[in-house]
Amino acid sequence: MQQDRGASGTRLAGSAVSRRSQQIQAAAPFRMLFGFLRRRAAEESGRPGDDALEVLDFTFGDPHELAMPAYVEAIRDAAVPRDDQWFAYKQSEETAQDAAAASLERVVPLGWTGDNLRMTTGGFGAITVAMKAVADPGDEVVYTLPPWFLYEILAIEAGLVPVKVPALQPAFDLDLDAIAAAITPRTRIVVVNTPNNPSGRIYPPAQLSALAAILEEASARHGHRIWIVSDEPYNRIVFDGKPFHSPSQFYRHTLLCYSYGKTLLAPGQRVGYLAVPPGLPEAPELMDAIDSLQIAGGWLFPNAVMQYAVPDLERLSIDIGGLEAKRDRLVGALREMGYEVASPEGTFYLWPRSPVPDDEAFVAALERRGVLVMPGTLFETPGWFRICLTATAETIEAAIPHFRAAIDEARRDGQPPV
Predict the structure, then answer these.
(1) pTM of the full predicted structure?
(2) Between residues 48 and 133, the one the model is more confident about
(3) CA within 20 to 30 Å of 86's CA: 125, 182, 344, 365, which one?
C-alpha cells in the first residue's frame, strides 16, 4: 500500500511569510477547514425574508446548550483569589496534577502520580509538545486516515514530515501491515487516536498489542526509539459499557495526551495534560524537555483559574447516557433510510458512508437544506461524512426528515448508494 508523505513547499518569491507558514496554509485539510468555517458562518447568519433557513449544526464538538451549573460554579470559585500570587505565572500546579493523575489511574491503571504529567493548553498543547519532545525537524510522523484533521499542520509546524496510512474500511481498524511498511529510518512517532475521531472506533487490545510488537521490532532495527503519541481526549466518552484500553498499557514508550474540553463539552476553556508512563527510564529527561518546550512554545500552560478548578472539574462529565440515546436514535433512523453507518463505540460522532461517491456534493445538498455536517474529504477519506452528536435531541429530530430527503433525492437523480 502506498503511503502519502505529504508535500514540502518552497518559499514563494517575494513572500513576506515563512516557508513553514506557507506549508501549513497549503495543507489540504487546513484549506478545506477554513473554507468550511467561512461557509458555516454564512449559513448560520441566515437568509433574509422567505429564504431564511433553520440551521441545524452537526459540525464541531461545540456545546449547544448552557454549560453544566457545577462547571460554571467550579470556575467561578477558582477565580476568587486566596493570596497575592493567585494570578502569578503558573506552570503545572501540583493540585491539578494530582487530581488529573488520580482520575487517569481509574481509566488507565498504570500507577500514575502527579509527577508523571504536565498540565497543558488542552489536547492541542499536549500533542504539540509531545511531538517536539521526541522528534527533530525532518523526522517522520505516521498516522492513520481518517485523522483528526489538524495532525498534519501540527507536524509541519514542528518541522516534521507527515506520513499518512489509510485505515481498514469499513470498520476503520488500524492497518498494521501498512503501518509497518510506512516505518523508515526517519520515523520517530506513530500517532494513535482512540476512541477515534471521526469513526468512533475503540482499538481493541489485540491491535494495540500487535502495534507495540511492530514498534519494538522497528525501534531495534533502526537503532532509535519510535514513540507513540496517544491522542485520548475521548477516553471517558465510551458507550455500552465497552472497556477502553490505552496504547500506554501495551507500549511503555507512549506519550498520552488528554483534553478536558470533550468530557466537559467546553473546548473554549483550554486545559489538558501530557502524561509519561510511570517507571519509564527516560521520564526524568523527558519531563525536563516538556517543561522547557512549554515555556519556549509560548507558555503552553493552562491559565491559573483553569488549573485551580481541575479537582472540581474531575468530578464532572457530560451526560454519556444522553449521548448514547442520541447516537441510537440517529443511527437507527439513518439505517432505516438506507445509510451505511456503524454505531460508534466512543466519542460523540457518527461516521456514515455518503450515499453518493462525491461526499462534498452530498454535504452541499444537506447544507442547502440547512443541515451542516463535515465531508469525509476534510478527513482525507472521501466517500464518508461526519455528524456531531453534541447537537440537541430537538436538532436531531428536526434534521431527520432532511437526511431522508437528501438520500431520496440522490436516488431520484440516478445516484444509488455506494
Answers:
(1) 0.92
(2) 133
(3) 125
